[in-house]
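Quick one, tokens below:
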């Protein structure tokens, strides 16, 4: 049992590091140096206590991908606020790599997370944009805007709206509503 656990941890560590190298710029000094209760990051066996926001995301996605691939499971990686702590330039890089990292990625974004990230995601391949929100008074500006679209470009249910219109998605700004 203990030997199997050690072997699995070693396999996942190595696989995660391969995926990190695929994603980060060449020569980036970051790797998983130990996998126990936590992923211990560092470089050349020297422990690093923190990574940048983008590095943390890449490590997490690389580890999740390693676990899923080892289990031979293909399902989408779904992340709420996938780039909240990442600067705009790194968002673009991360967005462009997601198509290579996962067979399918679903990210729940707010308008302030889109700059940089959407441009990167568009570079990576097939992208679909979905806007959805509740049919409540506080969303009246969105409701007014979506109802100006051709009826075939959105669906209204008893409690909400959904649209696959890219322009509507990109132009949506939360502001005070």
């Amino acid at each position: 049992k203990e030997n199997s656990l050690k072997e699995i941890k070693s396999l996942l560590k190595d696989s995660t590091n391969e995926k990190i190298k695929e994603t980060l710029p060449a020569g980036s000094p970051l790797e998983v140096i130990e996998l126990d209760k936590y992923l211990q990051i560092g470089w050349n066996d020297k422990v690093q206590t923190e990574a940048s926001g983008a590095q943390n995301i890449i490590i997490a996605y690389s580890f999740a991908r390693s676990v899923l691939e080892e289990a031979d499971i293909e399902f989408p990686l779904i992340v709420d606020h996938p780039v909240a702590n990442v600067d705009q330039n790194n968002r673009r890089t991360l967005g462009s790599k997601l198509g290579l990292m996962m067979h399918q990625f679903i990210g729940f974004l707010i308008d302030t997370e889109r700059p940089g990230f959407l441009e990167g995601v568009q570079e990576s391949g097939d992208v679909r944009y979905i806007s959805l929100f509740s049919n409540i008074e506080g969303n009246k500006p969105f409701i007014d805007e979506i109802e100006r679209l051709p009826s075939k470009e959105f669906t209204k249910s008893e409690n909400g709206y959904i649209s696959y219109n890219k322009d509507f998605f990109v132009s949506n700004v939360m502001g005070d509503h």
